[in-house]
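#struct-help
A.M.: can someone run this one for me? Single chain, 158 residues.
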Amino acid sequence: MVSRSFGAGLALAGAAVAATAVLGGRFTALGIGPWYDGLVKPGWTPPGRVIGAVWTVLYILIAFASARVWSKAGAAPLAYAGVLVTNLALNAGWCYVFFAARRPAAALIEIGILWATCLALVVLAARVSTVAAWLLAPYAAWVAFAAFLNWNVVKLNG
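D.P.: on it. Structure tokens below:
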């Protein structure tokens, strides 16, 4: 069995989540302003600074969980890596669809797929590291919350 370095996994996962954060941030910036401010949002919508802080913590958790999975021997980390790449692409993609393309209804479909990949990450991580699975649980929960918020925005704005 192949043993992989936790440090190398952390560097790879850290670079991947950092790229996702930068890309998602750029897409989000395209929609923030008059268009987003004009949307009717539920009163419980978190302020932008809270959302940003939560995502920062979640990206750190994703990187550490991914490094734990990667450092384990066997084929499971390779399957996890494939799902992770898909997940991070969907993560940045949601920002594009919702904010840059200004299509909340399409973003709702996309975030449903994103959430499914979050759950897949938790399941795949649990096969090799209970700690990694628990580190990913807040990410899956936050994406579920974001999907519910997205659904409410669609409902409130017709």
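A.M.: thanks! The helical segments are 6-31, 34-38, 48-70, 76-100, 104-126, 130-156.
D.P.: also worth noting: The chain has a mean pLDDT of 94.
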